[in-house]
Structure formats: structure tokens, C-alpha cells
Write a structure and sequence with these properties.
This protein is 35% helix and 20% strand. By secondary structure, the protein is α/β, with parallel strands linked by helices. It has a single domain, classed as Rossmann fold, CATH 3.40.50. It is globular. It starts with a strand and ends in a 6-residue tail after the last helix.
């Protein structure tokens, strides 16, 4: 099984690394980072890069597609090279997945129309514009499409899919090995729990807020 994790300029690191550290531990699987061009691809901070060893053209038919999000997702919404690759890869994939605003790229490619899906909480209204049915759930599975909410939920998505493919015990073992036992110092990880003034401030500064 080949897992292709898509990279593009200004993606969010944990969106890609979370699934890599969980789903990438699938026995016998090959995980490859792919991009329009091979070489280092900078994250949204600019201070970190991951290396795409293969181009999109090099990996036309992965078994699993993982699309991260991040600020760089916005210009990619009109990147026909990437969108065409997503459609072609999806035609033969066993699973097509995303983290955070990566689901907007799947939606822009026409892959989520009529399907339940999630994204970063600030981006959920955009999913609806593309014909998807947005939910506030952390991980959503609809057929072969598995979408995760914001950033850290990519770890949950990876474990969810790992359990589906390799069985619950293997997924539990990976969770234990990575000691994924979240005990955050604050209970502000969703707009339903965070202080209202923080939610409003983030909404006002979001690139998804209508002009």
C-alpha cells in the first residue's frame, strides 16, 4: 500500500506530520511526500520544510491520499495541476483523506459534493459552498472519504483509518507507542469551549470571513 501525503507551499506542518506518525505506521505501507515539484516545501511559518521526494506525476495512483491544510491552501484552490491530480488519484484510491482546510481542496476538486465532511471550524461554511455537508465533528468518514477538523485532529484521523485498515489493536498499539494521551492545560480547543472573545477575534482575523 502506498500512502501519498501532498505538500504545497505554506501547508501546516502538523496537518501532514500527524497522519505520517500514525497512519504511516501501517505495516508494509510506503509513505511518500509528493508535491508539484520535488524538493523542500516550506510550511506556513517559513522556518520548517519537509522534502517531497516525488512529484505528483511520479505517484499517479496512490492507495491512500492525504491532503493537509494551511494558509497556502487558498491559492491552491485554483491550481489545476493539483486539482486534476486529486481527481485522477481519487479515481483509483482506496481512501481519500484530508486534515484541516485540506478538505477544501478535495471539495474544490469536486470530490465531496453531497458528502458529510469536516474542516477547521473557521472554514466549515466554505465546504457548504462546494456542495458538501459540513459537520463540527473531529473526524468524519463518508464512504472512502475521511476528513479531519483542524490541525491536531489529523492524529485522530490517522488512528481512525489505521484501525479500519489494520485493526483496532494495531491502532491502539500505535496510540500507546506514540503516547497519544492528550491532557491539555486548557479546555479551549473548540469554538464551543473557548472564551467567546477569543472565538470572535479569530473569526474577525480569518481569511474565511466574508469581506
Amino acid at each position: 500500500m502506498r500512502i501519498a501525503i501532498v505538500l504545497f507551499d505554506r501547508f501546516t506542518a502538523l496537518d501532514a506530520v500527524g497522519p505520517y506518525e500514525t497512519l504511516g505506521r501501517l505495516p508494509g505501507a510506503e509513505t511518500v511526500f509528493v508535491a508539484e515539484r520535488s524538493g523542500p516545501v516550506r510550511t506556513d511559518t517559513g522556518s520548517l520544510a519537509l522534502v517531497a521526494d516525488r512529484t505528483l506525476a511520479d505517484v499517479p495512483a496512490p492507495d491512500v491520499v492525504v491532503v493537509p491544510g494551511g494558509p497556502g491552501q487558498t491559492p491552491q484552490m485554483e491550481n489545476t495541476t493539483l486539482l486534476d491530480w486529486l481527481r485522477a488519484a481519487d479515481a483509483g484510491s482506496t481512501w481519500t483523506t484530508s486534515v484541516c482546510t485540506g478538505s477544501l481542496l478535495l471539495a474544490a476538486a469536486g470530490l465531496l459534493e453531497g458528502r458529510r465532511a469536516t474542516s477547521h471550524w473557521l472554514a466549515l461554511p466554505v465546504l457548504e459552498r462546494f456542495g458538501a455537508e459540513p459537520t463540527g465533528q473531529r473526524v468524519v468518514t463518508d464512504g472512502k472519504y475521511v476528513t479531519a477538523a483542524g490541525v491536531s485532529s489529523g492524529i485522530d484521523m490517522g488512528l481512525t483509518l489505521l484501525g479500519r485498515i489494520a485493526g483496532d489493536d494495531h491502532a491502539r498499539a500505535v496510540q500507546l507507542m506514540t503516547e497519544y494521551d492528550p491532557q491539555p492545560p486548557y479546555d479551549a480547543g473548540s469554538p464551543d469551549k473557548a472564551p467567546a472573545h477569543l472565538v470572535e477575534a479569530l473569526r474577525e482575523g480569518s481569511r474565511f470571513t466574508p469581506a
